[in-house]
Structures
1.
Amino acid sequence: MVAGILINILCTNIASALKLPFYFDCIGTIAAAITAGFLPGVLVGFFTNVFVYGINTYVLGANDDMTLYYSVVSVLIAIVAATFAQKKYFKMVSAKMLIPIAGFVLLGGGLGSVITWGLFGNTMGEELASSMAGKIYLNFAHNAFVAQLLAGLIVDIPDKIISTILAFLIYKFYPKKFKPTRDRIDLAAIAKRGFSLSAKIILSVTLIFGLAATVVTIVSFQQFRKTLTDAEAEYAKDTAKYAASLIDGNMVDEYLRIRENADNYYIINKNLKLIWSSSDRIKYLYVYQFQEDGAHVVFDVDTEEVKAHDTGDVIPVDPSLKDYLEDMLAGREIPAVPSNDEYGWLICGYAPIYDYRGKCKAYVGVDVSMPNVGDVERTFTFKITTVLMGFFITVLTLSVYLAKRFIVSPVNSLAKIAGEFAYNDDEARKETLDSFKEVEIKTGDEIEHLYNALAKTTRDTVNYITESQHKNEAISTFQSGMISVMADLVESRDKSTGTHIKNTSRYVEIICDQLIKEGLYPDVVNKAYKDNVVASAPMHDIGKIKISDTILNKPGRFTDEEFAIMKTHSAEGAKIIASVKKTVESDVLKENYLGEAENMAHYHHEKWNGQGYPDGLKGEEIPLSARIMAVADVFDALVAERVYKPGMPFDKAMGIIKESAGEHFDPVIVKAFVDAEDKIRAVTAKIH
């Protein structure tokens, strides 16, 4: 994949430096796809665009983000290449290769031209195709988009033919011993057996990403339009205020009465004309006095499209001002008003003119034209859509690959072995055990734990069956239940969880003892409460069973995405315990032991000031047991040694707990914790 990205960048730069009429930007993408399959090809295509964007923007300072928007073309070319490679179209040079080449041309020249049109409008295309597009436009198409599309397709034909041949040569001369097994997507098999796990994953990722992308696009589009409109509205208002500052409010009635004979009439009219002509954005500029019978024209600037009204004319109030007419009659400020009628799409800003007594005598109106907004919005929509599409296809391909490698294939292997279980004689039982040894699943996650648990259970079962062929129904039911439990509740995978559970349980016990001793929270904390909380404390991190090993045991700080995933363990832990509660008939056990276990699992990362997670509870909204566990949990995390950090000195850790009282922690719990310092120190000493 690294080689593919470098080939793309190198060939593109060579073609540019030699001023060749080719792009050569997908040779590495096609080579990776036909050599190694869907995922490598897609990643090469996507990250080539990302890296080129990064180099141009952050290294060369070119501020060029265009390459990002063509990433969807690159990843689709990779998918086409991998699909036809799977069908053996690239086994040798033949006429069959023209079919994938045609696909590359349609994507590179066709879809690429559509994206160019979406970004730049009716241009003559990019540099390589612009000359041909101009000739097609003048002599044949007479439509800018069609000319651009045809030119893009024609120019792309030799480019994709040469690129495919070079990629094929790379594939042929690539050492066989280094060629990976291409990942396959067997669509026929999926269609035959219905929705497979892979198909469900594809559907799920597509629906989730599609929904998220739709929401993001809609919200972004609305915010973009609002920002654009607000900017124009502010400009209209500011221009109107400036024009209003040039007009003496004491003279408005005089202008209406004697018109051009009034002092400074021509000067003001000239100044308003200068303001109007100063910017193409200003379409109309006028001064009206609003009365019950309509708008009385004080000044109106002539335009090429619309002849100005004469001073003193009374015209109907524009319908867009209907909701603000009462305010204008009263001389109050009004916001900018959008208008979309025969005069076009306008943003109308109004500024009142006051006389020496502070009475509003008229309003300056400035209508700002927004004819280019549609083009800007189209470009914005294309940009966000193309980037999201490229990213989506890359994520989808990666999801399918990972799901197939680490979930689908191992589960199918286990299902195959499970379906072939046979215990009727010694030979069959031996074959069952041998099948487990041959599979040897090494995924490093819950699947591997499931495999080990199932293998161990199978061995134990085989041994047990060997000793006794006749089990009663109760034993059989118990055995099935054990297999299910061991499959679902895999042992903790966090390398630090074992000691962490013991330490936090001891700290929780010490805090509860101190609360009882000092009579704090006497209505809640007693011997029975303490026993329930201490007994359920080890389950506070049970939700980490849902977190992958890669994140759970990462030796360093989490990224934002990893931390977001890690934070889900609290809600997941509560779900696990809640599901257990449903199977328990004892109400006492549900409410006391399991109830506190659910509280601690769910809320031990909430903060006293409401800045925690997952629900942002604050103060005594947080269950008491969770507030106790929060102190114990953080303190142990501070003093305990981890693979990525040494343990913090006791006094420093205790200082952090004290400083966090009233912010992170319940001050009462911190007091009890600090008051029991000697006992806490004794536990910490055993850790080190």
2.
Amino acid sequence: MENHEFNGLFTDLSVIKGVGNQSYNKYCRLVGKEKVRIIDLLWHFPHKIVQRNNISKIRDLRDGEIQTICGKIEKHKKGFRNAPHQFDIYDGTGILNLIYFKLPFYMESKLKVGNTKYISGKVKEIGSKKQIAHPDLILSLDEFSSQRKFEPIYSLTSGLSNKQIIQTIENIFKFIDRMETFIDWHSESFLRENGWKGIIETLKDIHLPDIDYFNDLYENPTRRLAYDEVLINQIKIEHIRRLRMKSNGIKMSKENPIIDKLSKRLPFKLSESQNKAINQIYADMSKPNQMIRLLQGDVGSGKTMVSFFSGLKCIFSGYQFALMSPTEILAKQHYNNFKRFASITKFKCCLLTSSTTAEDRKNISEKIRNGEIHAIIGTHSLFQENINYKNLGLVVIDEQHRFGVHQRLSLQKKSVAGKADLLLMTATPIPRTLIQIKYGDIDVSELENLPNRKEVKTTIVSITKITTIIERLNNICNHKNKVFWICPQIQSNDNNNMSVNDRYDFLKQNMKQNISIIHGKMSENDRDSQMNDFLEDRTNILVATSVIEVGIDIKAANIIVIENANNFGLSQIHQLRGRVGRNDQASWCILLHDNTLNEIAKNRLKIIRDSNDGYKIAKEDMLIRGYGDIFGYRQSGFRDFKVLNEALISEIGKKAEKDSKLILDGILNSNEYKIRYKRLFDFYEAHEFKYIVS
């Protein structure tokens, strides 16, 4: 990102007053990052606003709600052993029971019998009694008069209070106020017409509110941010739409003799939905217009086989077929499977990844350029500048959300007239309303789950039970009961998350079985060696990061342990869980957590425990956390929505689509527009702007 006034927001949170080493580590855990910047905390929005100055009578208190009362401390029953401290508060209408299981020393002087206090917290009704355990606030009249009237309520992590987050947020805006004035990308007249404020004022209204903007009577300030996010995508979609309109696509052959022959040689029968998807794709490929189609299907629904049949049609029609995967492991698996699948043909296939040696790359590049190689399978290496195709006709992007728009465009530009057919595949179900926002008027094929796929039994277990888990695994683990053990990170940090290397060492000391390890920082040779040991039964346990998340097909594996499962998105956990349950044995998924779960995190894990339906899981997760976490992790070159929700899509989407046409015209024809809207892309860390203006 270029140096301009936004840079201050992308500095480390440690520059903010009051954020020391200990609290910094808690903020890392809160936002799920090893390093946390100011902007990362500003994206951590409150989920509720509490009006603390709205005083209720004790008789009117409602169960389960955060409320404030003013009353006199009538009685104090001191705690003893396991019994809590109890205070009776009276306001003339009833008695509130105040509970402290462990009374902080400093609170004793604030809770004297006879004193009148303002008390705020979550009310619980137990029979006819009303109770607040460990209240949020206990204030005198003077303290209460200076208290913020509307308090944002955040999801928390262990050791971090709501009050601490608010104080840090206040210090952030003091820090911002000392910076250079921010110049918004939208004009003042545009903001005024829509009733919106500048970007910094909007963030301030979200985190330091003067109203309860969750109340339908008020404009929610997140609406402006949702519009910006959709606008970025609509500008990119409009840019791609204009590129497509410049020329026709590629018309493929309508005849499929080899494809029909291969279909009959398969050791299994294609499902009804697979056949339907193949027919839809073939019909598109036979037209003179460019195909852009999304193939959507849950884990194990057979998307890869559909893509192989699509690739064969392309090759049979005289063009080259490229399949791009997000990881080398998956690319290699696709390469080996495609070679076996097309073994009766004379078509030649190659594998191209970052680990391909310089000599091999040179040889492969020449064969791709002269058309000797028909199917090219690999990672992001496929779209590098020194790779030139003779006649690329079909591009398949596996797990398309891992790749940015610019990466897809770069690969397409290498095709015949820049108009190769494009097939995007995802195992993360995307609602149709969101598809329209992300891709515009794209066609969609959906696959149903393959029949006879066994359900994976899922349990949620505390990390404190790890000894019991290891004992059970020692008893059942063998070459027919292989185990994946997934850790969220490669290196240790202070977030109490066990690294993949540490867990590998721990399991080697405590397990009877031989163990393999793979992660993203290992060399390709080392990863291959470890994976081959696992495949060929020299080891029965594979400790790994989420590098094995997509596509890895090891049928003997039927147990997966996912450590610190609350650090993963639900769709990501569902993908990981899809690595097991591929044989006729019973299969299990164990979700380990570290006992610091808040209510939202607990509810999310219950969703994954209670369902094996990927679409339902994604939908439920979005209801809890919004569209921002549908994929569960940050993608290189692809930004998830942080603000957008179902209620905003239709109205904001239409407006952003209309505005994007005029804004794109301005970007392409006006230097002022170009400078202004580069700020928009920079602020949301969308990296495609340079491809739009190039």
3.
Amino acid sequence: MDTALLLGRVLLGAVFAVAGVAKLADLPGSRQAMRDFGVPAPFAAPLGMLLPLAELTVAVALIPRASAWWGALGSLILLLVFVAGIGTSLARGKQLDCHCFGQLHSAPAGRLTLARNGALAAVATFILFQGRDDPGPSVIAWADALLVAERVALGIGVLALVLLALEGWMLVHLLSQNGRLLVRLEALEAGRGIEVGNEAATPGLPVGTPAPGFSLSGLHGETLTLDALRAAGKPVMLIFSDPNCGPCNALLPDIGRWQREHAGIMTMAVVTRGTPETNRSKASEHGIGTVLLQQNREVAEAYQAHATPTAVLVRPDGTIGNSPAPGAEAIRSLVARTAGAPGSAPTIPLRQGPSNGGVRNGTNGAQGRVPVPAPPAAARIGEAAPPLRLPDLEGQEVDLASFKGQTTLVLFWNPGCGFCARMLDDLKAWEADSPPDAPRLLVVSAGSVEANRKMVLRSTVVLDQNFTAGRAFGASGTPSAVLIDAEGRIASEVAVGAPAVLALAGSPQEGAPTRES
């Protein structure tokens, strides 16, 4: 029994020590895991720091006999909290990144993670009940018989092992970092046409060839395809990113700003990987409207975008518009070239010609460019509303023009959007008891007919699976809304989020802010 108690304490102590140190080495990841598991943002940062400290405290308490029982109690409490959090997420159909061992090992928390924590909780329970009076022998009792010289030698040996482990850990991270740098350098060299051997490197898919199609999920359960992104008739810029890539995360504020500033010129989408929960908070923080989730790197590989971040432009006709642009500076340059100077049309590269550097427009040496007229920007206040003809849930076409004569609130919606789901009850309450001067409601929704019928809304619901109407009005996500006056003109900026939409509808939440998408 004593041996079993000792082994249990050593096992728990080792697990919590490794977990605590690994989380302290990656505090941003620990805080993100807190947010993913539903901890409110103001508490995520302090709890992200307190959790690894609590794990280290438990690990230390398990070693001495005097505090071993309390260490076992602390470990059981922590493990039960972990089990409850993981079990709740699994019951909701989500597999969140637990960040259990920091960057050493971080994977979606599934049934195996739940079973592991349950087994460790059983060990902690065993120590609590069997070790109340005697938690087992001391972990270092055997050292009492050692001579002074032997103890010194033992201390030196332990210190050497710790230093060796630290050196190994640093070496692994250094090699991993160097590997990423080499990949990025190769991509940069290829992007600048640096010669390899006797042939010039030609990275990515040839300019002018058809862009590979794809069908990916968004952050709220919607499905978007390349054709859907191209539906607005504008160039599509795909930015390949990764949630664990530092340069990618540093570029996110710029991407959010570009999506808003250049919405009338190009459609910009971030193609990343990971769970919706992992990416949703980042997208929300930086105002990024279109994020697509690939399983691993299948779409990036199809576009031969081997590093992150990398951008590839797809022309309005569905062909490749540039060689991959790896790195933040190359992406910024591509955005600037595509957007063009203020008041001028953007330029899209022509199809590359023969390997000697010629291009099809007859120029020599440099790649030719032709101006491509920018699509009209989203309608502004006072302008006529863009035409909108979409099928309702019965398959009958609904024309926005038929709503003239009364102010209309056009609400862009998605039944699979978590923010929409939380707003649904308020929207129904508004329908049941709207102010006398409230606008008529037209819901432009994605999702299936069945999903939209389950909402049981009284107002007219039309289907727009590709979000084409939303982009035409300047909306970047759901829920968002815009007012159309009785003459069919835009009467408000785009309201984003439940409070702003309800305020625009004339609900009691008057004064909620609106902003242009």
4.
Amino acid sequence: MRNFYLTLVIVALSISTAQAESLRVSSPDGEITFALSFNPRSEPVYTVHYGSEAVVRESRLGLRFSHQAPLDQALEIIGNQRRQANGQWEQPWGERRWVTDRHNELLVQLQSTDGQARRIDLRVRVFDDGLGFRYEVPEQAAYGQVNILDEITEFHLPGESTAWWIPGRRYNRYEYLYREGKLTEVETAHTPFTVRTPAGTYLSLHEAALVDYAAYVLDQRRDNVLQTNLTPWSDGVRVRTRTPFKSPWRTIQISPDAVGLANSDLILNLNEPNRLGDVSWVEPGKYVGIWWSLHRATETWGSGPRHGATTGNTLRYMDFAARHGFDGVLVEGWNIGWDGDWFHNGSLFRFTEPYPDFDIEAVAAHARKRGVRLVGHHETSGDVSNYESQMSASFDLYRRMGVRQVKTGYVADGGDIKRRGENGHWRHEWHDGQFMVNHYLRNVQEAARHQISINTHEPIKDTGLRRTYPNWIAREGARGQEYNAWGDPPNPPEHVPLLAFTRMLSGPMDFTPGIFDLQFEREGEQRVIESTLARQLALYVVIYSPIQMAADFPEHYEARPDAFKFITDVPADWEQSIALAGEPGDFVAFARQARGGGDWYIGAVTDEQKRELNLPLDFLEEGVSYTAEIYRDGPDAHFREQPYDIVIEQRVVSRGDSMALTLAPGGGAAVRLVPLSD
């Protein structure tokens, strides 16, 4: 088994049993300080300073239960432990191969002052890019089985801050357009939740290592005071568990600029190392598939004369994939259950029974012959009980067919996940409640037993568990490309520069970029994707995913081989990734180096404003010249008026040069930098 966690060094350990009024722990560079103390009501509270700025003012901590006394008041410190860590660990795949883990840790032991010896511990880790803290409740008398009714974790943020967010606990899960406004305008919000303080400091509130617990949405109780509102079960209980237990980490990423958030590894560092052992069977790559035609309504998921998932259609896509070096072909709508109102008829899905016009054995044989893989698909329509009863058998089938990746789907309104209760009655749960948190992980673990990776759509938000389970290779969790086919409105140009500093802070997203036919008719309605052609290429660098789709029809790519070359060249696995510049909702630029190679790639996109960027190439190797293959917006490019105006050119650059790029309204630029041989 390969050891991905390297050189973690415990530098110091100290224990004090003396009572204390307050305790502090700072980041290794001394810039971030977390302080724990008590308010006049003997409630534990904390503050966070970034330099001299109070980025989190006095905020309460604690847990409340249905049958036991709360652990949020009448507490005192009875001991603490400290340690330091400084090391690196290797990702089997990812946005960078090596991740530095450098932090200072404080474990605070709290006990009740009423003589009943009620215990709760708080573990805090402070990094140079932020911090995380979690509750650890030890086994103790009267706290065996517990039902958590509320978590009193607050974030009292500076007044007059600016926020970027999507609303929490609504019917469309995480698939909303991001809003920008004053912090006080927020009611509830999903995380990652991004804030700029009046002093210009950027914060992102989120959570890490969400296991056997409910996800939270932020709930603004008082102006500028947000509390973790745990997603409830159908009976109102938030979390069912037993002592000892640990909450997920409550995380605060901190940076003097927006790009610092995008360069942070804090969420990954707060997760446990790989538990799966050898994961060489997890294969990053690019795929095509029977998908965009379904959203454009030229083909159907259900059976009939326009059925998309036929044997012949799949073989056509496989031949295209083989010709152009793609790794796989996604096929949606191949199995019984899609006819009729499939959105509400999840109990009809049969995950091992193909439609008569889809010969899965012939498809698998053709895939082996052409050197590509079938990418599997399991849509549940939110009927999780039906899926779980067939999950193992469905993975057995896919393993026999040579499938290594499966896209799962949970299309259902928020709060309408269906599970059969113990008494046989149907219960309706949230996608981000404890029941589904546990289901998503069971799905990933069962897939791992079959050496299959999972790409979850309609998922639970990413909290870094891809480190612990590297076969959780991607997920959706935001408004993706499909909204450009039928959404009202489609994704505006500012959407991607917002994703880069919100959703993408949590981990990879299967956005499905690469649309070349940007203006088309769908069922008699004219659709306009608010993007230039160059921008669609830039998305392969800007939006990170280890499995990238070329989402458009094969004929649209073969009609533009000049632009298509970038998609066939760009990798999906990286040695390094650097956010170069950007502001939420305005623009963003990334540079990424191919895993195990010398090529670098740059992607940049803007909002509806034309923008001039000048990006220093200081990341290039010293003394090496590079051919820059540039795909940029043409002089007349505009996301509505001239989306296809593109210039493809080359020039030689080296470290110390700058890359000047003009981005059209709704546009972008993609660059491949190839080292020149001697």
